[in-house]
Amino acid sequence: MEYVLGSEWEISPAGGATGDAYFAHHNGRKLFLKRNSSPFLAVLSAEGIVPKLIWTKRLENGDVITAQHWLSGRELEPVEMYGQNVAGLLKKIHHSAELLDMLKRLGKKAILPKDILSEILNSLMIDKELRQSHIIKKALDFLEKEEMNVQYDSHVVCHSDVNHNNWLLTDVDKLYLIDWDGAMIADPAMDLGMLLHWYIKKEDWPSWLSLYGITLSEQLLLRMNWYVIAQTVHSIIWYKSKNKEKEVKHWTHYLNQLLR
Asked: Where in the numbering of this chain does the Aminoglycoside phosphotransferase domain appear (predicted)?
């Protein structure tokens, strides 16, 4: 990255799965750099959902480097997911016509329940042990039985990983949702289900959803439950493929709780 900014900048890895993110600072200026970010980042910045995009540079090898303001702040604590600021920002994302239009222009199609189920079934084809697991079979029975009952036509931009550590609260109390590599067009129940199941007590779901701007219904409950079960099965499959037994046990236990 030195050849992009100059040798006077101090650059260090910012972590992350891809290894393509960096922090840079020089004379009090601080930047967050990323290699080959999606063009979607520009719209997210314009909408105030991620820290401001400062510049984009295309290198001779075809790589694209983006620079954003590096803001002083912290990730949210799990208990802070109750906040009106979280519900408000997620509502803004789900209702943004600009975000939806950009993903469509980038060639994204809506992810339907049948697509998710098909991906799970294909992944299980190569893991005989998981295919024979009682809890996985029980989850598949539920997903297949309810697939037609969770159809929803109003697709939106979903983040798909609303974990508390992807919410950045700055020192001036500005909230951002970062790490958009998994963005997709889908039923908003995908994001809502994960957030509510992971962080909000069930008796508080109606009040949290009122902050978001909707009323809890039986159909929404079913859709959220369907997506959370599907995501949990997907997590089990992924962690098993990486031989991460601790995580497999954790998500298998969680799946068992969901299916009670």
From this structure: 14-216
